Amino acid sequence: MAHATERCRKIIELSKIVTGAGGLLLLLTVTGLIQGGPVALVLAITAMLGGIALFGSTTSTREQFVESIRAHEARRAKLINGMTLQNVGGN
Question: What ranges do the domains of the chain cover?
Answer without folding.
Answer: 2-81
